[in-house]
């Protein structure tokens, strides 16, 4: 019973039903081809026999015209007396008296519209003692004498029988092979689909590391497996990021919240009537609350970008306008810190994206560059355009301390800050947001060495417009 269950399941599968459908179409095609072969072969042989009979008829007619009835009788007797002949002759008077031939009587069969007559000679006695049939043509001579000329069709009937048997075997073998091949194909497809089902069950059970195996043939199931694995990678990355965010929020926000509570508690403990003291405490509390709100806003922006919720709202965006706006906002900030901000817009590319998120990503890059570049430094904001087959790229380069190559992947994670940056205000979410926005737009974020400093580029795909 256990062995029958997979077979029953296989018979109910879509691959097996498709295999049956293709098998049915294949059987019909083979049947039509075999029918055409049979009709062509048998018809050709019958046409050859008919042509031979027609030639004999013409010869006997010439004999009658040249030698008269006596010559025709002699010719029919001579031809009828040949041994092992399969020709049939019969010459009778108007009253039905046999003058010559090898038939015992005129056949009791109705001629067809073309003059041809098919009749049975005997139940036995044909080739290999099979029923003997004949095909003949008859006509009336001057004087109402009747002449019948034909051929014994036993050999052709035997050939037809052999062809029918052979074609039946070919048809049967085709059905068996087609059905067996359909079962094998369906079973192979089911094995691969079952592998996908097992992987999904593992994932539903909590094992996010499971991946769908690929056959390596590059067919539709392999492409489906690749897409599923890419989706699972994204899900695992999001789940890991969520877990990291939860841990990081619990760890990194505990300190400012504790500090906020302590500051308010100290203000309540102090016994003073000086309103300036309370004002200062409230101002510090507001600043601390603003930093917490900024952190939560950044987390929400990252989550929104990573979820792809804004993908439906993507529309054509002129990157040059985004870059100019960011440069106008941060140029006074750079001047106030004693930095030089140089904007170089070399083209006017248009990409399909979310203008607000793109502006926030460029602003984050400029904010980081201004924050970590020492006084007197230089920051370059570069926009390179996209021609045919080229990529649009927004680059922010500075001559600050830079990021070591072994830390460039690490700094893209949430709440990760280098030791040198811990003294500066921030929450370690700037580059994480930029990376999430880049992924939303199918772009890549590249961190490179500016010698000295850091060069960060957002590279859009060539068809992003």
Automatic annotation (TrEMBL):
The transmembrane segments are 20-38, 169-190
Which reaction is catalysed here? ATP + protein L-histidine = ADP + protein N-phospho-L-histidine
* Keyword Transferase attached: yes
Ranges of residues in domain Histidine kinase: 248-464
Enzyme Commission code: 2.7.13.3
Q: Which GO terms describe its molecular function?
A: ATP binding
The protein's name is histidine kinase
